[in-house]
């Protein structure tokens, strides 16, 4: 079966711009979570969506937002980009809260 | 919130030897502990997991042990092979509150042929 698909794979943006990342979960998975991965901070939880509702949120500023559509596809948006937002953004889906995640390959965002 | 510590940060072993990675967690409410393997340019891949009602779980060359009293869990890889070289992450979550995982800082494992 198809895995978790994230688009685009690579992105270069300028400080102050905004960006939208997309994630298509595994078919049937209703939980979608987003993580930021950096060498210094490791894997940090951004938020989780389940059936179009945000169920959990990490400690990130309000510039980071997300949403989930009725087909479980999810997007995350980062506004007013800062250099420190450069990271690998990973999307993960799971069947329910009792299951492990399946991660996508991530979107590498570089802010210049 | 939950805090997960992982050791060592780097580990080199000879092919065929065993590798052990250890993690500790702080929140006694955590009840689900997955391990992920991440290869260069890829997202983390689930390799094994354990729930708090189980003390040990094994899958071929990989095993995980959990000590709830001491709040630590470990990954054991036996008969290591070069393809085991990757970064390994442990994680902890409280499944009652949803899918929010707290990850360790990762262990870079190198298996020397």
Can you characterise this structure?
- The complex is a heterodimer of chains A (112) and B (113).
- With 112 residues, chain A is mainly beta.
- Chain A is 0% helix and 54% strand.
- Chain A has no helices and eleven strands.
- Chain A has strands spanning 5-7, 10-13, 19-24, 31-38, 42-50, 53-57, 64-68, 74-78, 87-94, 102-103, 107-111.
- In chain A, the strands form two sheets. In chain A, strands 2, 4, 5, 6, 9, 10 and 11 form a seven-stranded mixed β-sheet that branches. A four-stranded antiparallel β-sheet of chain A has the order 1-3-8-7, with no helix packed on it.
- Chain A is globular, with a radius of gyration of 13 Å.
- Chain B is globular and about 45 Å long.
- The termini of chain B are far apart.
Topology at a glance:
The complex is a heterodimer of chains A (112) and B (113).
Chain A: E1 5-7, E2 10-13, E3 19-24, E4 31-38, E5 42-50, E6 53-57, E7 64-68, E8 74-78, E9 87-94, E10 102-103, E11 107-111
Parallel strand pairs in A: 2-11
Antiparallel strand pairs in A: 1-3, 3-8, 4-5, 4-9, 5-6, 7-8, 9-10, 9-11
Chain B: E1 4-7, E2 10-14, E3 19-25, E4 32-38, E5 45-51, E6 56-59, E7 62-67, E8 72-77, E9 86-93, E10 101-103, E11 107-112
Parallel strand pairs in B: 2-11
Antiparallel strand pairs in B: 1-3, 3-8, 4-5, 4-9, 6-7, 7-8, 9-10, 9-11
């Amino acid at each position: 079966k198809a895995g978790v698909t994230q688009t685009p794979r690579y992105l270069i943006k300028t400080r102050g711009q905004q960006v939208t990342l997309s994630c298509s979960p595994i078919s049937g998975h209703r939980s979608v979570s987003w993580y930021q991965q950096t060498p210094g901070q490791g894997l940090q939880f951004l938020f989780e969506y389940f059936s179009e509702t945000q169920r959990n949120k990490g400690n990130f500023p309000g510039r980071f937002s997300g949403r989930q559509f009725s087909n479980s596809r999810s997007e995350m948006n980062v506004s007013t980009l800062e250099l420190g937002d450069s990271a690998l953004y990973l999307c993960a889906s799971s069947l329910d809260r009792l299951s492990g995640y399946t991660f996508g390959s991530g979107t590498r965002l570089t802010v210049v | 919130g939950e805090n997960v510590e992982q050791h060592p940060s780097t580990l080199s072993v000879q092919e065929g030897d065993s590798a052990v990675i250890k993690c500790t967690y702080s929140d006694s409410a955590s009840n689900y502990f997955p391990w992920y393997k991440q290869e260069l340019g890829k997202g983390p891949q689930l390799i094994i997991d354990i729930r708090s009602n189980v003390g040990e779980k094994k899958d071929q060359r990989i095993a995980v042990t959990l000590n709830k009293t001491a709040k630590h869990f470990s990954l054991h890889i036996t008969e290591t092979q070069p393809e085991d070289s990757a970064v390994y992450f442990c994680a902890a979550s409280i499944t009652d509150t949803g899918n929010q995982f707290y990850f360790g800082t990762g262990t870079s494992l190198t298996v020397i042929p």
